[in-house]
Amino acid sequence: MRDVAPSLYKHVSYLIEIALGLVLLLNGILLLINSSALLSFREKFSNFLSAEQLLNKSAQEWRVLIEFFHAIVATHIMIVVLLFAGIVIFLAGLHTKKSL
């Protein structure tokens, strides 16, 4: 009975690692697809493209622009983290499966 428990634990462990890695990869890919809507900068902020219009903007408009850039940066960092973590965990699960 002692030999069966560690073996079963290892099988469950690599299955969970592989599943978690695939879930993280899927979330990263879905976030990447959804973030394409954020990249329509010209449509949302076309009035920020000329130098003379930049001087006439209100504090509210500048705040909206800065929040937009923050959302883009945060989303892309999250995409990189999800994809990288998903790949690493998935490969760790495969390595655990091969080492059994």
What does this protein look like?
It is a single chain. By secondary structure, the protein is mostly helical. Helix content is about 80%, strand content about 0%. It contains four helices and no strands. The longest helix is centred in the last third of the chain and has 41 residues, at about 60-100. The radius of gyration is 22 Å and the shape is rod-shaped. The two termini are about 20 Å apart. The mean pLDDT is about 80.
Q: Label the structural class.
A: mainly alpha
Shape: rod-shaped
Task: Give the helix tally.
Answer: 4
Helix content: over 70%
Strand content: under 5%
Computed Rg: 22 Å
Tell me the layout of helices and strands.
Blueprint: H1 4-34, H2 41-44, H3 51-54, H4 59-99
Task: For this entry, give a set of tags.
80% helix, mainly alpha, 4 helices, 100 residues
